[in-house]
Amino acid sequence: MEKLLNFSVTYDFTHFVIKNFFHQTNPLINERMLAARLGIDLAKTPSEVWERFCITVLDGFRYKGLFAEGWKRWWADGLVDWFSHISGEKLAFLNAENRVKILHAKTGFQELVHASPLKFCTSSEFWSICEGYKVPIDPLEAFKIHTTADLKPWQESKVISLLAILEREGFVDRGLKPHHSEMERIEFIKKEIGL
Asked: What is this structure's pTM?
């Protein structure tokens, strides 16, 4: 009985950590979120360049604790501090092109390509990813998605772009849909742009 109880406690702890720290954006960010916050287009940047950049430049704030071998994550605050240290600039206040120009100048990785806004978006002050297309987006131009779980205070909402909503990208295969609180704003924006 004691063995079973110990297994249950271990399983519950493991499940909690994985679900709340590796499947959500929080103090730890995944590779796509890392690239988005740096303003990098992962589809246009050669994968070997990105890998080398992560290993040689960004390793100082990579998460190296429990489950690190199964989920590559970086400390969100570490990214902000590192960027401020190398540039003297606030990462969140720069557009993607300027972020990547700084990366070119300070790291020598000239092959990094800056991301561009999705259709119906204008800002490249990326801080999140569109869950439909898995590309960078400014959260101010995005819509929260519906989730069945309540977010913890340290977790960020996942978002989706208007383009993904209109094209229903991820709706069937991943069950994505906008949060009900966003419906009025979606309709207003559609009217504003003539859709």
From this structure: 0.87
